[in-house]
Write a structure and sequence with these properties.
Elements lengths: L12 H10 L9 H6 L7 E4 L3 E5 L7 E7 L16 H17 L6 E4 L15 E5 L9
Antiparallel strand pairs: 1-2, 2-3, 3-5, 4-5
The structure holds ligand TR5.
The site of ligand TR5 has 16 residues, from loops.
GO molecular function, one term: adenylylsulfatase activity
Protein name: HIT domain-containing protein
């Protein structure tokens, strides 16, 4: 099975940690998100333009949980790999999060998360912004 290709069937914390641990060695290989971008596997797309794609997370952690990704990874497996050339796409990802939050009616607020690396519990090495909302968030995060 290709790296990161497993379709998640459970949303419990231990399976979440196990999946992140499986992906603990960051790689620039294609991920499940490439297949979503190429429409080889289905996703519930909520926003798309020539640069970014936003789709519903398969294991939502809140009533609204959307992932926003660049269509071209360009070495940006995670935020820690960002270079100055990535500034524009990083801005596009955040601005898209704002647009989609509005589209989803998250007028009382929302949370943006970018997990990075093993300690950040990143499981898919294609940078993505989590847009999470529709309920009261807690702080500090787990
Ligand atoms: O753990 P990080 O921050 O890397 O986030 C990766 C996210 O991708 C998780 O929240 C997963 O639930 C989500 N994910 C994983 C798969 C997937 C997905 N979202 C939508 N569709 C998915 N498919 C079809 N397959 C996945 N393996």
């Amino acid at each position: 099975m290709e790296r990161n290709q497993k379709i998640r069937g459970s949303d419990d914390k231990s399976s979440r940690l196990a999946e992140a641990a499986l992906a603990a060695v960051p790689s620039d290989s294609p991920t499940i998100f490439d297949k979503i971008i190429n429409k080889e596997i289905p996703a519930t797309v909520v926003f798309e333009n020539d640069k970014v794609l936003a789709f519903r997370d398969i294991t939502p952690q809140a009533p609204t949980h959307i992932l926003i990704i660049p269509k071209v990874k360009d070495g940006l497996t995670g935020l820690s790999k960002a270079d100055e050339r990535h500034c524009e796409i990083l801005g596009q990802l955040l601005y898209t999060a704002k647009l989609v939050a509005k589209q989803e009616g998250l007028d009382d607020g929302f949370r943006i998360v970018i997990n990075d690396g093993p300690n950040g519990c990143q499981s898919v090495y294609h940078i993505h912004v989590h847009l999470i909302g529709g309920r009261q968030m807690n702080w500090p995060p787990g």
